[in-house]
Amino acid sequence: MMDPTSWMTIYPEIVLLVMACVIALVDLTVKSPRRTATYVLSLLTLAGVAWLNASYASADQTLYGWGRLVVSDPLGHWLKCFAALAVLVTLVYARPYAADRDMLRGGELFSLSLFALLGMDFMISGQNFLVIYLGLELLTLSSYALVALRRDHTPATEAAMKYFVLGAMASGFLLYGMSMLYGATGSLQLDEVLQAIASGQIKHQVLVFGLVFIVAGLAFKIGAVPFHMWIPDVYQGAPTAATLLIGGAPKLAAFAIIVRLLVEGLMPLAIDWQQMLSLLAIASLLIGNLAAIAQTNLKRMLAFSTIAQMGFVLLGFVAGVVNGQTTLAANAYSSAMFYVVGYVLTTLASFGIIMLLARQGFESEEISDLAGLNQRSPLYAGVMAICLFSLAGIPPMVGFYAKLAVLQSLVASGQGFYIGLAIFAVLMSLIGAFYYLRVVKVMYFDEPVTATTVSAPLDVRAVLSVNGLLVLVLGIVPGALMALCAQAVKSMLAL
Amino acid sequence: MGLLSLAIWTPIAFGVILLALGRDEQARAVRWLALIGALVSFLVTLPLLQGFDNSTAAMQFVEKSSWIERFNVNYHLGVDGISFWFVLLTAFINVIVVIAGWEVIERKVNQYMAAFLILSGLMIGVFCALDGILFYVFFEATLIPMYLIIGIWGGPNKIYAAFKFFLYTLMGSLLTLIALVYLYTASNGSFDILSWHKLPLAGNVQTLLFFAFFAAFAVKVPMWPVHTWLPDVHVEAPTGGSAVLAAIMLKLGAYGFLRFSMPIAPDAAREWGTLMIVLSLVAVVYVGLVAMVQQDMKKLVAYSSVAHMGFVTLGFFIFNPLGVSGGLVQMIAHGFVSGAMFLSIGVLYDRVHSREIASYGGVVNTMPKFAAFALLFAMANCGLPGTAGFVGEWMVILGAVQHNFWIGALAATALIFGAAYTLWMFKRVYLGPVTNNDVRELNDINGREFLMLALLAIAVLYMGLFPKPFTDVMDVSVAELLKHVALSKLPQ
Fold first, then answer.
1. Which residues of chain B lie closer than 8 angstroms to A374, CB-CB?
2. Nearest chain B Cα to A486, which residue?
3. Where does residue B271 rank: exposed (0-12), middle (13-18), buried (19+ CB within 10 A)?
4. Is residue A193 part of a domain?
5. Residues of A with CB below 8 A from B171's CB?
């Protein structure tokens, strides 16, 4: 078991774990209220982990470690690389915001973020029900604490409670589903589960019973309707820094566990879970978009928009297996992956702007707080507008190609139902365009209510500009990222 | 870098520079930089004029390189006789619009100028794109600058107008996106528009595609009954926005019919041609009548645009060379004339701040030079021989008579209505004694306004007197298109 390959497969995670502990310890000696040493060390760690993962991913080989408990494949490493970068960017945006809100008193923000990332990494590379579940728990437990980090703030505490109760229930669902499948197949290993189901010896009813719980648990985690109720409350109530830590990188991990559990573990049941995901996607697109129209709180609006966006991601999973053929699977799942990556990139910048505009004692989370931003700061208004147009799926932003890829995967199936789904999805994105445009309107057409200039530390300004620009640049040259996603998914499916 | 790429990216590059560097404190420098940008962008399109070969229907100045490999999307540009003039027209109108906004715009000058420069580049991109996704990206991206132009510099009800514009046109184009993706699948993974032209498609598929394209292009043209956004938007948009909208943006829709609907789904186009003709005639006749009762000058010209664009679609769907060429000529002419009409209204609006016809009267007494220009453009708008407006309408009517006498006769009534509403407006605004103090205090146009109107006047007269260079360019391409549309694409 203790062969070198096994150590190799989790090398980035070991680095991350060691550094997370070191940072927690180092922080004890840090006196500065802005925690500069902890901050720099965290960023270096994240950059290092991202680089490690990227170099693993570029090696383009698939290795299993610890008796197939974890896998090291390009798909996983790319996702882990993006997740590390997303956490890095989040921390850059979060530091001034957190410092103003007394959230930096201990270094927990940094060490908890790193532990959350470690959880994501194990969700992404797990090949065993228990590993995936433990990764998920590590992520969610860190997230609960992050949401509650502002201990004297009532909405945040309330959000943390809600998140904890509902999150625990979702974990329960997932665990229950896993135990059903374990009972039916006699294994926790994804590959053995797959073989057992493919053999056709196991009663379909039992499998579908377990599958329902797994899908429900996953839907809870990504916030698909009707398991979405925690999303708006938590997004709104949590300190924005924590909102972004929940709403950014973990979406990549959520994508990964859908791939690991449903595609790698339960592919023979695709007919069943595709139907379930279709229903979840339809409901998410409908409820998410309609409810977002009515919101006046920007964070809450973005929460509902997230629900709708996740509906689109799920659409990427529904047209993979058509008539028992998996020829379209790589195309479909890579479109979902591209969607998630583009979505995370856009979300980072938009929440980054919200944090940037917040000041001591002022949250800047109402849509009307953005009034006249273009006159106060054309740069940040521009970044926000790029993000909103991207979320609305208007070219030439990355969000357009994400939608295009997903729609293409639906239409490529040639089935009337899926083409109908595609038409439904574009009509829903028309509704989506309305509420995104409303924010653009507030920023550009309304007069500012305050004349305060927007100022930000150099690191935030630089990262935010690059982040916003990337949403646009990846829209003008999306080819490389698309090819990367396609390649990663293809090599995963080839096994 | 090819000529077409230069034509597209030069204005966009200037726009980005303006966005990055421009400040309201240096408005003067910003204006000059914008003008230089617009002029350079126009100049780089001129070599096209020299290099274009009239004798072939093939795409010219072709550029092709891979853009998104995974979906086989190419950066594929080219122009033929159908799209050629619009590249130059767009670049030309862009210069005019920059001049028109010179001292009128005081707030966020750099963003205003940048929006128009970027918009112009994007629209040229639409006319040059030979790849479905490239086309769609340019087509949709034009919404963003226009939305901002209307919303930031528009009139009192600008927000309603900006949203109506954006959502109305987005609704149409989203269905087109599905059609593009469907064609990609049907053609085994190609977004090449020219290869779609040759793709055999079953009858019902063609019908669905035809209507999916119709959703986008009819809204953009706009055809009756989806024209209602246009008057609302024109009224609220700033002068430059109205001019670009009428002069170029509407043509994106009409161009789409020629590049997508007709050649990709020719059987459906022929089958539903009658419907298109009926809708066009309703636009020509009914909307012409609606124009007559307008109290607001901008609304009147907006409705007149719908009527004139009705001529364009009528010309396309009678499927004969005179009709299609006439429609194209009408598109170019309408670009000059409607642009000029809106800019004339802008000249008055900048002084009196009213668009109501009733606020004016006897303007000729205080602004004789301006009234002379206005008269020329009014005459062009009602299609007086010798002006640009005449050529296209006359060709379309001739074509329509060849197709069916009564359609031609009905279309010809539009000349009467056109003359009626235009001249009646002209009479009420310009002629007669001075009616109020606002008009009494008017100053005649300054050098800048004279320049912009004179440039348009030259264009209107030149095109009216020498239409041959315009039609020569399109003849072969139009003939080829019609030959293609006449053949069935149903699978054998």
1. 108, 111, 152
2. B70
3. middle
4. no
5. 430
Chain A residues whose beta carbon lies within 8 Å of the beta carbon of residue B148: 440, 444
A406 occurs within a structural domain: yes
Give A236's Cβ-side CA count (13 Å radius). Answer: 20
Nearest chain B residue to A399 by CA distance is: B137
Question: For residue B284, which of B418, B180, B172 has the smallest C-alpha distance?
Answer: B418
Q: How far is it, in rounded angstroms, from Cα A281 to Cα A311?
A: 4
Q: Taking Cα atoms as reference points, which of A375, A399, A402 lies closest to residue A482?
A: A402
419-448 of A, contacting B, C-beta below 8 A: 419, 422-423, 426-427, 429-430, 433-434, 437, 440-441, 444-445
Asked if B71 and A408 come within 8 Å (Cβ–Cβ), the reply is yes
SS3 A352: helix
Instruction: Identify whether residues A304 and A254 lie together within a single domain.
Output: no
Interchain CB distance below 8 Å, B137 and A396: yes
Q: Are residues A365 and A245 in the same domain?
A: no
Whether residue A175 lies inside any domain: the answer is no
What string of pLDDT tens digits covers the 495 residues of chain A?
Answer: 568 888 888 899 999 999 999 999 998 888 888 888 999 999 999 999 999 999 999 888 888 888 889 999 999 999 999 999 999 999 999 999 988 888 887 788 999 999 999 999 999 999 999 999 999 999 999 999 999 888 788 888 999 999 999 999 999 999 999 999 999 999 999 999 999 998 888 888 999 999 999 999 999 988 898 889 899 999 999 999 999 999 999 999 999 999 999 998 898 888 899 999 999 999 999 999 999 999 999 999 999 999 999 999 999 999 888 887 888 888 899 999 999 999 999 999 999 999 988 877 777 788 888 888 888 888 899 999 999 999 999 988 999 999 999 999 998 888 889 999 999 999 999 998 999 999 999 999 888 887 777 888 899 999 999 999 999 999 889 989 999 999 999 888 886
Residues A370 and A251 grouped into a single domain: no
Are the C-beta atoms of residues A12 and A48 closer than 8 Å to each other?
no
Among chain A residues, CA nearest to B164: A434
Query: How many domains does chain A contain in total?
Result: 2
Q: Which two tokens stand for residue B71?
A: 């979906």
Domain co-membership, A310 together with A257: no
**What is chain A's mean pLDDT, rounded?**
90
| Cβ-Cβ contacts under 8 Å, A422 against chain B | 178, 181
- How far away is chain B from the Cα of A186, in angstroms, using its nearest Cα? 40
Q: Amino acid identity, residue B199?
A: L
Instruction: State whether B182 and A411 contact (CB < 8 Å).
Output: yes
Tokens of B322: 């005179």
Helix (H, G, I), strand (E, B) or coil at A204: helix
Looking at the fold, whether A488 and A394 belong to one and the same domain comes out as yes
Helices (H), B198-320: 203-220, 229-236, 239-244, 250-256, 262-264, 266-271, 273-282, 288-292, 297-317
Distance from CA of B30 to the nearest CA of A (A): 16
Which residue from A389, A433, A479 is facing B68, i.e. has the nearest CB?
A479
pLDDT digits (tens, 9 = 90+) for B133-183: 999 999 999 999 999 999 888 888 888 888 988 988 888 888 899 899 999
The pair of structure tokens assigned to B279 is 């809708």
Task: Give the closest-approach CA distance of A362 to chain B in angstroms.
Answer: 27
Same domain for A457 and A376, yes or no, is yes
Structural domain of residue A402, as residue ranges?
A: 271-495
pTM given for the model: 0.92
Rg of chain A's alpha carbons, rounded to an integer?
21
Question: Do A64 and A152 fall within a single domain?
Answer: yes
- pLDDT at residue A2 in the model: 66
Judged by CB atoms closer than 8 Å, whether chains meet at B140 and A394 is answered as: yes
Check CB contact under 8 Å for A411 and B181.
yes
| Shortest alpha-carbon distance between residue A370 and chain B (Å) | 15
Give a yes or no: residue A478 inside a domain: yes
Q: How many CB pairs under 8 A join A and B?
A: 94
Average predicted confidence (pLDDT) for chain B: 88
Distance from CA of A346 to the nearest CA of B (A): 18
Same domain? A248 vs A309: no
